[in-house]
What does this fold into?
Amino acid sequence: MTARGSAFGERGSRGQVAVITDSSACVGVGEGNSGLVIVPLRILAGGAAAEDRSTAPLPEAIAAQVARGERLTTARPAPEDFAAVYRHAAAAGVLAIVSVHLAAELSGTIGSAQLAAASATVPVHVVDSRTIGAGLGFVAAAANQAAAAGLPAAAAARAAASRAARTASFFALDTAEHLRAGGRLRGTGPAGPVPGADRAAGSMLASRPLLRISDGTITVLERVRTRAAARGRLTELAAEFAAGLPGECQLAVQHISSHDDADELHRQLTAAVPAVGRTAIFRASTAILAHTGPGLLGVVVTPAL
It folds into this structure.
């Protein structure tokens, strides 16, 4: 296992706080994520396995298995993977760590981090971002910016948790089959989850499902027929959520194999959300591709730092 990111000690203080996340995050340069260390998930297909290199092309062995019809999936980092990163941080003079990861409902990654934290030689604050992708990137950025400002680890962890609670992720798929096959999808209705959620989710496969990640859970909101309709509804949902945030917000468009749709959604969002600050477009990570399939188009809304 090889962690990615800047070397520990970059902030030049023995009292520094290191911030660690995982490869399911969409991490943007300049958004507060400079110096983040990224622990890779594992990607699997058939009998092949490799480290998730985020947006890099699939390794040849994995791509060959997928071409043969094997399902692409993921596995959490082992506790020892986190333990090795925590040991390296401590050896570099880091005195505390904030470890921010994808939602516990979506992966066992949080559990691995917690097991490693229990035996770490420096305090480790493990934070469940309650989301994934660009949402996770935003939450990790809150911790990283707080740490860079010299705040203690507990305060950096609280900053991450606070941003997680005020971040919304909406996305559309060409099909929900990949999410349903992985057991990561719930149906929903006006009053919340409905009986027969799996059947409800399955009935949406004939059109494009529109979904939300809320408190770590992926739920189906509605269905639309066209990509244009999906862009329109994503814009409306993002604008409605942004209107409830105090001050400026930040937006991120994330996609898989949908460059033109992502550009158009970005244009619509910047016109529809007057209080938007920085915006960005990301290609979603391989870990997300494994569970959504191609065709993902989404938007994440969060308070500006």
Q: What stands out?
A: Residues 188-205 have pLDDT under 50 and may be disordered. The CA atoms of residues 46 and 70 lie 5 Å apart. The two ends are 32 Å apart (CA to CA). DSSP finds ten helices and 14 strands in the chain.
